[in-house]
Amino acid sequence: MKDSEAIAQFLEMLAAEGGAAKNTLLAYGSDLRGASEVLGGALVDANAAGLQALGGEWMALSRTSVARKSSVLRRFFAFLEEEGIRRDDPSDALPRPAVRRALPRVLSHQDVDRLFAALEARRQDRHGDALTLRLIALFELLYGSGLRATELVSLPRHALRGDRPFLILRGKGGRERLVPISDRARAAVADWGAHVPDDQPWLFPSGHGHLSRVRLFQLVRELAGEAGVPPQRISPHVLRHAFATHLLEGGADLRALQTMLGHADIATTQIYTHVDSARLVELVNSRHPLMDAARR
User: Fold this and answer.
1) Is 172 a catalytic residue?
2) To bridge 50 with a disulfide, which of 5, 46, 109, 264 should be the other Cys (CB 3.0-4.6 Å)?
3) Of 69, 114, 122, 148, which is the active-site residue?
4) For 37-64, what is each residue's pLDDT tens digit?
5) Cα atoms in the Cβ-side hemisphere of radius 13 Å centred on 82
6) Which residue out of 210, 240, 241, 246 is catalytically annotated?
7) How far, in Å, are 10, 203, 237, 268 from residue 217 at the CA level?
8) Is 240 an active-site residue?
9) Do 107 and 242 form a contact (C-beta atoms < 8 A)?
10) pTM for the whole thing?
């Protein structure tokens, strides 16, 4: 079988069975076609020596890039074996660079308090004008429900209905999830929704479409400046991280957090346990009586 045919079948499987997102399919396709080109169009029939040579071609790349490419090819060869296209899986010959995953940036509880205090000050100064109510609703949903920026700005006008305390979202890979919505967030959305026409398709309209991710990013940083939080430390995604970290600190179950965040793999959610562990280590080093004695 030609490489191009096998790659097309593999990507079709990922889309149909795995619900892979469009950008994921584009990235996988690019990595596989690049590997095929290096091997002269013989990726499907590659042996261990060929894959070792391929790894040698990646020497100049970062460990993260090599790990990603190796992961894609391992999935590809597993697919070929499962489909009977080849009888063996030579992917053990691919490099396995150790990649340390960076901990997400998070905000402290004090930072979040300052942000919401700045929102309340804005509400009072501007007498609850529509743009302030919109900003409050955006922040309540970002921090209160952990929505991704794209999910937030593209919410339908009637995404929140009546007293229903949750949203049903379609996130990455077309996966649906249930997202709890706090009473505060529902009240904020109701206040803002009074300014949005019923026939408007978006909850946060702008021009001929909905609010853009870029504009959301700008609004978040503008408020951070008002609140005395360094703008370079904050973004919509950082507020999502804060939602997850603060829930975990409060005793949330990791599986429940995985569901709320829409992570396909709990390994992605487990990064927040490392954030919490780092906080606990810092707490021990700064507050434990034995550490005080050592300093004295």
Assistant:
1) yes
2) 46
3) 148
4) 999 999 999 999 999 999 989 988 888 8
5) 10
6) 240
7) 36, 17, 9, 23
8) yes
9) yes
10) 0.58
